[in-house]
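Follow-up to my earlier ticket, as requested here are the two runs.
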Amino acid sequence: MALPAWDHPEPLAVDSAPVPEYGTGSLADLLPTLAAGMAVPGMTAAIPELTEADRNCVFLIDGLGWEQLKAHPDEAPFMTSLLTSSRGGSGRPITAGYPATTATSLASVGTGLPPGAHGLPGYTARNPATGALMNQLRWNPWTDPHAWQPYPTVFQLADAAGVHTAQVSSPTFQNTPLTKIALSGGTFHGRLSGEERMDLAAEQLAAGDRSLVYTYYAEVDGKGHRFGVDSDPWRGQLMYVDRLVQRLAEQLPPRTALYVTADHGMIDIPFDEQHRIDFDEDWELRAGVALLGGEGRARHVYAVPGAEADVLTCWREVLGEQFWVASRDEAIAAGWFGPQVDDRVYARIGDVVAAARDDVLIIATEREPKESAMVGNHGSMTPVEQLVPLLQVRS
């Protein structure tokens, strides 16, 4: 008598992942659309719902996803009142890009390019020149920023076209490599308090007949990582930044469009073995792996030479019901990193790329103790991580 076949669910299909809206509604499309409306050469109005303005301001709130904002109307009454204005009055969000993480998203915002072109494809990625992991948020170990990301920023192109261009952020970020390759062009103004940033952003908008101003606030993300996105500290930060948005909106000079957006959303992951899979304790996942990059919900896996196919097979068998698991070429073909990937970026992407669908993390308690202890996480292509607001106020 024949034995029954082993009933094993099929792994998630690579092409079933909800790819970001590159080219029509992603973070990479925002500044080119605004710059095109200010007649900056070479820029394309990629987000069709937006209309032109002489002065444009982007206020990026780190970590404030669309779903988190909609779930907290009491803490964010002003931004909640703007939900219907999102994406040019369509009331819809845009997408962050993959992976939905700060270094990648800020590079997409500033360059107007998807990750496959600007070349910051994750929180950590392998440097093909050295074979070592590089942290692209902290820029460690050091590498030449302009060799790593050679394209001009939209701010630089706008400044060259005669647009008054400025960034208003924490003084801490003024000379960082990430700022240099993603957010430079025009003048940088460092201010410590949120209120000072809002006031100065309004002043900078008024300083030119055509102006492009960027400002940023980080602590919504910080409190989410440490305490979770429904904690009292996180709610307190949301209340504070809601007041900042209103403060800036009430000071806009004439002919201005203010856009409030974010670099990613966030999801809280329970602290148990079911939801947190420890790579450092799992011999199957470690087999044949030379380097583990990315972050818990968006992993780049670099195989020992010759073991690429075996690692892909193993990761699919172990994780394929909870993660979209793809080879490098499959992820590129599916458009995860944008419509094309530059040659210099190709080997920065993992031999295997794993993006979480379920409420689960691949942590590494020995290699990444701090990251493994975070409550709130992000990185993948799920709506809670990908969807970000594009709230609008016009004067």
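Run two:
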Amino acid sequence: MDLLPPPLEGITVVAVEQAVAAPFATRQLADLGARVIKVERIDGGDFARGYDTAARGLASHFVWCNRGKESVALDLKDPRGLDVVRRLVAEADVFVQNLAQGAAARLGLDAATLCAAHPRLVAVDISGYGATGPYADKRAYDMLVQCEAGLVSVTGTPEQPVKAGIPAADIAAAMYAFSGVLAALVRRGTTGRGGPVEVSMLDALAEWMGHPLHHAMHGGTAPARTGLAHAVIAPYDAYATADGGRVLLSVQNDREWRRLAEQVVGRPELGTDPAYATNAARVANRERTDAYVAEALGALGTEEALARLESAGLACARLRDVHEVAEHPQLAARERWREVGTPVGPLRALLPPITLPGGEEARMGDVPALGEHTEALLRAVGMTDDEVAALRRDGVVA
């Protein structure tokens, strides 16, 4: 049986994008088969290209968020550069931008303006705090939005709040932009009309804060910061093993506690002792509960500790660092790694999480060099040799 084509094959996306939120959203579209044309500045391009040089000389953020795209470098302050974008948009299905608040509107590239001119276009505005309200014009970097959305307040230890170790606000906005595009394309399929899509980083991350928000709004108190422990379950934490590893253990009910006490801790009497027999009692006596578990696991190597916990039917995990995740046996066994082309040669990358059985594998295209596709795209919008040469001579394209 023939494989189904990628679901977004035939869809063209134009993106005036930078950093993470918009590029990660459009990378999802590219992985699903869309053609994504990335519009970059002529003086260095997307500034995420310069975040670091960790990926064999390339920026790790950029490699992660920009595979499968075509790069055109334009000066949008020059009317001729802006005209190229407008020509590209006229033939596109989707437009995405995450410029600073107000910048897209000044260029006539905001969603409302573009959708009025192109009724079938799906146009996405990604912002930090939304287009209205007292925060509309505030700078919105990931860490700042993590703070404003309260994520930092519930992450960390009792003594110290910390930000998430990944750009959670950017990723949240990216994934809502991605799903917003898909929803708008479905609607276009039934109505023939596209329309604007608005996503703000604050709105996205505030939604992800749903549990602590509801806990605080309706219960009166915010969940406590507990590091790797759980605020209302015990034992539920990371415990050191004899060989320097750390094992996470989660006991979800009193039956599991009795198995842990008997088969791992070696103290079956703790399973029925009123001081430990119920979760409420264990939470009240968390320090002593954790001490019993820590002593038992601390006498075992990591592999043996995990084996005993698994044998007892208890939820457990190894605390892995990033290098260990890159070699994770489950990812290897499920063949989740591929190679993508880049200006410095092939680099490992994970298949996207969306798998469509019966269809072609995700299109993990190359990471483009700055302006790699400028010439081809200028000619595709009808420019002559003389016009292209003039744009290059005047520094309008790169």
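The only thing I checked on run two: Residues 168-191 form the longest helix (24 residues). Let me know what else you need.
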